[in-house]
Design brief:
Blueprint (H helix, E strand, L loop, with lengths): L1 H34 L9 H11 L7 H8 L27 H13 L11 E6 L7 E6 L2 E5 L4 E2 L3 E6 L3 E6 L4 E6 L4
Antiparallel strand pairs: 1-2, 2-3, 4-5, 5-6, 6-7
Length: about 180
């Protein structure tokens, strides 16, 4: 019974608040509706002057405002914004350090390809269960793989041989093999 009384009280309170809101909106809008101008009884004289000049529907030209706009002179940086072509821009030449330039020239002269990048896998464990092929535990950053001999890891490296001391890995993209020793820690 108490819940029903609280609901009725909330309903009556909501109705009273809605009626007060409607009366407040009518009271604010009534002066502007009757006079045809917005209500400015609470605004300062400067705000009232702006509101009345901006909101009037006077079709006449304001020559004083036009004259003040005509008096503005364009003072740019000497660039003609109406011209399609631009003036030539000079770009300073960047000097390549001699060491890099010499290495690049030496490689081009010898026609030797640069050495393949090292395989950055870490071999940190092995699992030798009876009846199963050995499994190598490999990681690269936060990624960890468990691989058998012949498996491809990270779509890039093929496991060639697994031993307790090291694992032989082939880089399929660079056709390069490397032995990665077992590391602890």
């Amino acid at each position: 019974m108490k819940a029903a009384t609280e609901s009725k009280t909330k309903l009556y309170t909501a109705i009273v608040l809605c009626v007060v809101a409607v009366v407040a909106v009518i009271w604010v809008l009534l002066p502007s509706i009757s006079s045809g101008a917005p209500a400015t009884h609470s605004a300062s004289p400067a705000v009232r002057a702006k509101v009345t000049t901006a909101d009037t529907l006077d079709p006449r030209l304001r020559l004083d405002l036009l004259a003040s706009a005509e008096g503005v002179k364009y003072e740019g940086k000497g660039k003609n914004i109406f011209r399609a072509s631009t003036e030539p821009v000079t770009i300073d030449r960047v000097n390549v350090p001699p060491l890099y330039r010499d290495q690049r020239q030496a490689q081009q002269q010898n026609n030797t390809p640069p050495p393949p990048p090292p395989i950055n896998l870490k071999y940190f464990g092995i699992s030798n269960s009876k009846g199963e092929k050995p499994k190598a535990f490999l990681s690269q950053g936060d990624d960890v793989w468990i691989a058998h001999e012949g498996d491809v890891v990270n779509r890039h490296y093929r496991i060639v041989r697994i031993s307790p001391r090291d694992v032989e890995v082939e880089d399929l993209l660079n056709n390069h093999r490397e032995n990665i020793p077992l590391t602890q820690g």
